[in-house]
Amino acid sequence: VTAFNIVPGLLGVILTMTMVMITSIALTREIERGTMETLLSTPVKPAEIMLGKTTPYVLVGAVQTVLVLVAGYLLFHLPFTGSALTLLAGITIFIAANLMLGYLISTVATTQMQAMQMTFFVFLPSILLSGFMFPFRAMPHWAQTIGEAMPLTHFLRIVRAVVLKGGGFEATGRELVALTIILVVLTTGALVRFRRTL
Q1: d(CA 104, CA 99)
Q2: What are the backbone angles phi and psi of residue 47, rounded to the nearest 5°?
Q3: Alpha-carbon distance 50 to 23, whole Å?
Q4: How far apart are CA 103 and CA 19, in angstroms?
Q5: Could you report the per-residue pLDDT of 108-143, keeping only the tens digit for each?
Q6: How far apart (Å, rounded) are the C-alpha atoms in residues 121 and 126?
Q7: What's the maximum distance between 2 C-alpha atoms anywhere in the chain?
Q8: What is the pTM of this model?
Q9: Helix (H, G, I), strand (E, B), or coil: what is residue 133?
């Protein structure tokens, strides 16, 4: 059933597009308008600013997740056979990784238009090389190498394993670790870049 393969993947695609774009554009707008400099004149640390600016979007991602899963269940009769706790862990790490990617983009972009263009520069390869549109193992080796570095690739494996195959932590542990590593790398890069930009 095609919908069983596409709908769980759509969850990852929607979260990638919205989380990265919202964060990058919102933060770039604040830098453009000078409100970020005002905020930094207070005794707030860069890590605290990062946490404060990204935390509200976790709620947005949670709402999107619920909507997609409910729509998938009601409209496409998507089976949900795996561990909800595993899926929750995967979604949380994935949302955080995308927010950090958006934050990193905002430290590089100087205008909102640049931030949007850079978001699509990341978003399109994510769709093409993650296994969402094409079978991952059927792609050339170089494409698989690039795909392994993208959060969406690992999230697709997690959500499909949990929703369709009844998987839990034992089946998705490797992907959860990979997502966590990507999150740590993106967070470190965003913090370092944010300090240098200032």
Answers
A1: 9
A2: -65, -35
A3: 10
A4: 10
A5: 888 888 889 999 888 888 888 888 888 888 899 999
A6: 9
A7: 56
A8: 0.89
A9: coil
